[in-house]
Amino acid sequence: MTGRPRRVAITGLGLVTPVGNDVAATWHALLAGRSGVAPITHFDASGFPVRIAAEVKEFDPRQTIEDRKLLKFATRSHVLGLAAAEEALRDAGIRPEGRDATRWACVVGSGKTGLGIGELEEVRRHCAPDGHFHPDRLLTDGFAMDPLAFCRSQTCAGLSLLLQRFGIRGYASSVHTACASGSQAVGTAMKLIRRGTADCVLAGGFDSMIDPIGLASFCLLGALSTDNETPERASRPFDATRNGFVLGEGAGLLVLEAWDAARRRGARIYAELAGDGNSLSSYRITDSHPSGDGPIQAMRQALASAGVLPEEVDYLNAHGTSTLMNDKSECAAVRAVFGSHAGQIGVSSTKSLMGHLIAGAGAVEAALCALAIHHGVLPVNANLTAPDPECDLDFVRGQPRVRRIRVALSNSFGFGGSNSCLALRNPDEVDV
Amino acid sequence: MSARVVVAGRGAICAAGKSPGEIWDAVRTGRPAIRPIQQWDASGWPTSLAGEIAGLDPRALVDDRKLHKLLQRSDLLGLYAADRALDESGFVAYRDALDPPAVAAANDRTGVYVGMGGGSYQNEYEFFPLLTTANGDLATFGRELAATVNPMWLLRSMPNNVLCHIGIRHGLKGPNACLTNHSVSGSLAVAEAAAALRAGEADRALAVGHDAPVEPQMVLYYHQLGLLSAEGLWPFDARRSGSLLGEGAAALLLETERAAVARQGRVFGEFLGSGCTTEAEGLLAIRADGDGLASAIALALDDAEMHPAEVGMIVAHGSATRQSDASEALAIRRVFGATTPPVTAFKWAFGHPLAASGILDSVLALVALRHGVVPGVATLRELDPDLESLPVSARPQAPRSDVALVLNRGFSGCNTALVLRAAAGQAP
């Protein structure tokens, strides 16, 4: 590349999370240290080894999405994404219109798709009453071959709903690297603007796995905290007593714009999306190497991509899942990348309050980094009372920390080994 | 100047063969591999044809037996194609002869971009015994879960499994993505891999597309939506009546020209540009005027800094649905006008392998150009008179140059175009 790549501004944010159904409510709850983890209400989880989760509460999609026909094509995950996108575009004060629509792109990390348990149970009753699948029965028995169920189950279904609702006509893609999906989507979006493929991007992630199949799949792996009696304490990243993550659901969407255009129209810029790092651990399906190999490369690339020095980083929104291996490996990686400066970085995992939003996590956490920069406040790492000596970073404990942030990093590491790190810079640092 | 991106290795598998050469032979000699479905008895089904890989034991494709339990059919196809592309490039042998710090650097500078398609319904059927036991009672479902379902179920159903296991098998650690965007996933994997190389994020990157949609519930849904033919897949034909699903995978190892030259690797072609757009009118909608596809072509030519007249052949999407072929012909005419280069399409030979099609078509386009032949659409009896007299033929045509334009269309109104140049020299 010759010259400096185009700068990218974050000008709109939209959130639907377990602690709040929009940006303001989510940020307020995080500053108040209010947990979104509680007993599961979406279905009867009484027989499951894990009976707690971070659910989005009292969410009525019809309040934001008046298009009932569109909602028929949407799963809960998609609806969360649609609502967050609506807020992000309103917040940015700009929309795809006319010829500009071809200069808008959309990149989203979509959660795991497939049939819901209701649809799966219907197939089973008709086609596998004895537990064995008889394909021919799909043709008979009045089994509802519902094209809507097919549409909802497509991996690009959420993307399609966003494109259709907002009239985006340029580059469009759905991506999935498990827990790194949302972050990789935002990183890809940044690059689209840098390389001139788009001028504006609606980017983010959404997921909802709090259903019997989703919960079952993580229970089987033994990845979740079983602290059913103390839900608000269950997610405690970096604590010596941590025992697994808490499944959450939600969506985070961001509006990204070419910096100069955003300045010209007088947009409020939360932060510059300054860099993206992206690596593969290639170690195990569910773990990074204990040395931090994999995340180390992602963080180094993000710094290099942003053109910032390690010493300029003031805040790290950690992946911090509250599993034994992740938190240890992540701390080792931070130490390896930052050396003696590691102790100067305020670190928190907001999963301590809102659980793990899986494909939505990275996008939500990127938005939280933008808010942390904008407000000059670092949200807490809740529930950290017995520090793990192997996790010796400067965690934001007890109260949110007021601090001007020059550069913030957001880490997201996925099952399958994809590591993503985003670097966000204070807009005041850009203009001086 | 951004880096030039070359093709340094290829792999492909589909109903028509298990290597680019085998598939090329089937295409060149006009032998379609679309047959009655074998994976289940579909004889009484409204659609009973597909491009299945005959007699496939997918486990025979990947030597690591531990992986067989962790992967689905589509994943094994993807790993197979990726392995072949790496083999052909000679990269792994080159890397392994380096000293340890250089090995680590080479791994960090090698990316992996995978396009996967619609996923699988059958994978969820593993919950059937548990659902039968529970009989509608979720408390029982929760209690009996651990005793009934394979603990590895989630790991087996992850959409990014091919990405994960290519990395682990070969130690690759560079930038990566898993595109889950239906039939344009594979071509987007190429576009993103090339973008990473141009931006200097990596020296080489595998681009892989894989799909295995031939399963009962999937076939019935596609039929229900009117997308499948009961008789055959006949692109651009007056009698065409729909598409047919196929399965397969393909991979390209893309490398910066500098990195390929440094290790004296073979070069099969060059990536010149890509374009991607959406029509944004819904998951299944296709605009009749081909607007999205025409825009994608224009963007790809722009990216390649090329005039339409420089394109030597077009590999059309040619899925053989009434609507897609008609709008595709309009889009091609809109960009190329009266001087449209020879057009062909390959799906008649092996069905529509969804996410695998973009890379499979790219592999074949490069082989075709090296042979100096635009292969005919062997099934073509009568060109649909409504299709703008598209220069498509049942017989071979001569390419106008060494540049191919490869088109792909997928759900959610997505259209992609890739521009590739074949390397000069002998046909492989």
SSE arrangement:
The complex is a heterodimer of chains A (432) and B (428).
Chain A: E1 8-16, H1 23-32, E2 38-39, E3 52-53, H2 68-72, H3 76-92, E4 104-110, H4 117-127, H5 147-153, H6 157-166, E5 172-175, H7 181-194, E6 200-208, H8 212-221, H9 231-234, E7 249-258, H10 259-264, E8 271-280, H11 295-306, E9 313-317, H12 324-338, E10 346-348, H13 351-354, H14 361-375, E11 377-378, E12 394-395, E13 401-402, E14 407-413, E15 418-425, H15 427-431
Parallel strand pairs in A: 4-5, 4-6, 9-10, 9-14, 10-12
Antiparallel strand pairs in A: 1-7, 1-8, 2-3, 6-7, 8-15, 11-13, 14-15
Helix pairs in contact in A: 3-6, 7-14, 11-12
Chain B: E1 5-14, H1 20-28, E2 35-36, E3 49-50, H2 65-68, H3 73-89, H4 91-96, H5 100-108, E4 110-116, H6 128-134, H7 138-148, H8 153-157, H9 161-170, E5 176-179, H10 185-198, E6 204-211, H11 216-224, E7 248-256, H12 257-262, E8 269-278, H13 291-303, E9 313-315, H14 322-336, E10 343-344, H15 347-350, H16 357-371, E11 403-410, E12 414-422
Parallel strand pairs in B: 4-5, 4-6, 9-10, 9-11
Antiparallel strand pairs in B: 1-7, 1-8, 2-3, 6-7, 8-12, 11-12
